[in-house]
Structures are given as C-alpha cells and as structure tokens.
Design goal:
Layout (H helix, E strand, L loop, with lengths): L2 H11 L4 E4 L6 H9 L4 E4 L3 H15 L3 E5 L3 H4 L2 H9 L4 E7 L13 H5 L5 E4 L6 H15 L2 E7 L28 H13 L3 E5 L7 H11 L3 E3 L13 E4 L6 H9 L2 E5 L18 E6 L2 H6 L5 E4 L2 H14 L10 H14 L11 H11 L5 E4 L5 H7 L8 E3 L9 H11 L5 E6 H17 L4 E7 L4 H9 L14 H7 L3 E5 L2 H12 L5 E6 L11
Parallel strand pairs: 1-2, 1-3, 3-4, 4-6, 5-6, 7-8, 7-10, 8-9, 10-11, 11-12, 13-14, 13-15, 15-16, 16-18, 17-18
Helix pairs in contact: 1-2, 1-7, 3-5, 3-16, 9-12, 14-20, 16-17
Amino acid sequence: MYYHQALARALHDIGTDVVFGVLGDANLFAIDAYRRDLGGRYLSFAHEGSAVLAAGGYTATSGRLGVATVTHGPALTNTVTALVDTVRGRTPLLLVAGDTDPADQENLQNVDQHAVVLPTGAGWEQARSPLTVAQDVERAARRAVAERRPVVLNVPVTFQWVEVPDHERARPVGLHDHPAPTPADAALDEALGIIASARRPVVLGGRGAAGARAELEQLAAALGAPVATTLRGKGLFAGHPHDLGIFGTLSHDVALDTIGKADCVVAFGAALTPWTTDKGSLLEGRRVVHVDLDPASLAVRAGTDAAVVGDAGATARAMTAALRSAGVEPTGFASAALESALKDRLATRRDAPPPSSGIDLELALRTIDDELPQDRTLVIDDGRFIITSFRELSAADPRAYVHTCSFASIGLAVASAVGAQVGAPHRPALVVCGDGGFMSAGINELSAAVRHGTDLVVVVINDRAYGAEHMQFRARDMDPAISTFDWPDLAPVATALGATGVQVDDHAGLHRALQVVAERDRPVLIDLRVDPDAVPTPGY
C-alpha cells in the first residue's frame, strides 16, 4: 500500500471515527483514503484553526481523542491560536500536519514548522520514515492522552506516494488508557486528619472530577459539607440541595457568604486558579486539601495543606470509608437554612420582570437557560458578556460544557461547538458569542455547521461594538466611535448560509425566537440586539 493509505489506516486503527480538517496537497490523499477505503467521517472547515478547535470540542464531549488535519505552511500557522487555547485548556487532541518537501527550500509555503508549534506549548512528533507510520501515529496519540495536550504529528509531503509493506498496525488509543494512581497512604492520612477536624468544610469539584459526582456527594454527606464547582466543573452538582454553584470570582452572594464561613476546602480535579480562589483570598485562613491526577497541578499552588495524587472518585471513596470507619459525624455545615437560602435566591432570580422595551441581557440569558432543553452542550465565546453568561447559563454536567476562553481570544466558540455536537450528537449545542467574535470567525463555521448537519443554536449578543473597548472609552468619558461597527443584519446572513436567522429586539421577540428554536430543522442563529451601554461589564 501507499504511505497515505497506511496513514489513513493507522488513524482508523487508533479508534478515530471522525477527522476535522482543511485539505491541502500534503493531506488530501490520506483523508480521501480514510473516507473512501475505511468509511471514516471527515468534516471540512473554512479555517485550519477551526478544525483544531472542533477536534478539541469533540474530545471534551465524546470521551474520545479528537483528531484534526491540515496541510503545510500557512495552514499550520493558522492553527496557532487554537493550539495555545487547547494547550492551556489541557485538551488532548492529535493534529496531523503535512510539511513541505525538505528539498524544496524555495517553496512559498515553506516554514520551520517545529518552530511554529514550539511556543504554543503543543507536543511535536516528527514522522520518522514511511516504514514507521503506525508507530508514529500511535505514539503521537498516546502522548496527547498522557500529556493532556495537543500533539502535532508532522508528515513530509514526500511520504505520500511511497510504497510501504502492509504488515504493521497501530493499536487503539483511549482517553483513559493510563491507570489512575492509587493515593499514597501517608498523603491520604494527612488529608483525612485535616478534613476530619474541620467544622465547616466545602467540597469543591473541577473538570477533573467529571464522572465522580456520586463519590464526591457521598464524601460531602459524610462531612456535612456543601458542594461547589470551578467554572470548568460547571454542572457537576446540578440539582444538589447544597450546591453553591461556581466557587470564586463568579460566586453569588449566598455562596460567598458560605465560603467566607468555611474553615476547610477539599478540592478534587480543580486547578485552584486566581479566578477560582479570587487571587487566593477565598482560601486564606482555611485548610486546603487538594486532590488531582497530575502532580504538576498540585505543585503549582503554594500553601496547600495536604496534596493527594489520585483519581477524584477513588480518592473520595477512600476518604468516605475512612471517615465512616472512624465514626466521624457530619458537621451540619450543609444545613437546612443554607438549603432554604439557596432556594430563595433562585426563586428571586427568576422573578424579575422584563423591561418595556429593549433587551435586559441578564433576563434574556435566564430565559434562554430556562426555555432551551437542559440536556444540551454549552459553549461560551470570549467577550465582555462572558461573566453574565457564565453566571446565568447552566450545564447539566462538566462534559456538557466546553470552555473556549483559555487564551482570551474571541471567535473560538462556533467551531468548538461543531466538534462538541458531533462528539455528543444526542445533545444540541448552545453557543453564546458576541458580534465581534461571530464576525471574526463564527460566520465561517456556521456554514460548516449547516454543511455537516450539526444541531447548533447560536445566540449572538450583538451590541454592534467591541464591547470591552467601548466601555473603556466610556469609563474615561471618551468617544467610543472607533470601537463600534456597522455590521450587516446577521439574521439574513445566517439564512443565506443555510441556517435559520432570527433578529430579536425585545423580550417578546425573544420568546418568538425560542419557538423557532423549538421547531428547528437546521442550525438557528438568534441576533440578540443589545445596547452597548447596557451590557453588564464587571471591571469597568
């Protein structure tokens, strides 16, 4: 067989059922063989960065390794922002990139591809020889899983039509191929000593605790502790009577009051970033037990009282068993009064009347959150609306939330959502983005969503401006005109791309638009027109 056929087969053998990409002369034959000979699915995108983002979204929701492919030169440089975002988001994925003929130094697309990838933080694997194709693909995929980051497999274009023997096969690669370490007895004993003596503990779950809800809730019950999540753990404890929601700078008043009274935080699979800890202030004066699979994550934060390397579920189970065996009684910090306060807050939050004209963004997002199916994938783009969106929009589970803001770049959400919806096809994907982010990149991949039949609902919060910059001008009594835009009407643009576009100018219009969403047979875009001076903008 030819190398390109062997490459396609190796991708199939590691367990790849879909590839996201942009074709070029260095990858087109492999993808054709993957589709034609092996029945694989290929989803085409307009921009190479979008293919990488889609692969990352697929990893997040499917529980399988996302795979993307691009050709050489500018195709690879176009992936830099997506690679940085997925590296910082600790998202495993495999990017198969072509490379120019090493002998063709005058090729206009020639660039030092290793030097391009290096500053992104992604891993690099050079295809060594046409004879090692299966080994190279499997090694790159295993590194992506083990290192929890993208790995670029660089394949010279000259390999494509080299004949190779049909004998070596790659083995399947799964996201959970590496067994979780068993917590060390000494570290577990130290942690147990701290949590058993706590009087007001809180159990905190991050993205790394996805799938361990039952174990963490049992530990919380044994401790009599309320529960909370990081932003990336959104939805982990949805429906729990003592769920404080997001722990950190996004916490609501009841949560902050409870956290302020806590004397111990037991964190599982949580990075304890400056945002989660409010620059450390929410952990000051409190004992901290930190559980994570990655020793490096535990080493980042100074001041942790007990660090335990281990799987969230297995460690929580061990802790619960030890507490019950020792006869430790629940503290009662998760009280009936706290449950009542959380219920009252939720009821009050839902009672606000709509304005007589225009859009109240907080109320609009609550309405969307209430009326769209709860079994959905949530994808939020970056922009000044993100704080409000993070607070008002819910996810049923951390694996139903795709984070696109690890590099603070706008425009990453729509492409991520296409891959996320393919990864969890039983759930529609709700995308919330700004008009700037949509026009910079989302508009390209709304076309991809239509082309590939993905179930997307895209809400564009359209203030016809770069909102954060607009508010900086306003805060200094300066003219914000250069931050504003005269965009085309987005609803007819969406319709022209094959989606259904609906413009919304008030809350009555929003209810009509949500009826269109309920009856959709294709992606829907809601152009939510808001006043740039009325969008909540924390920090300005």
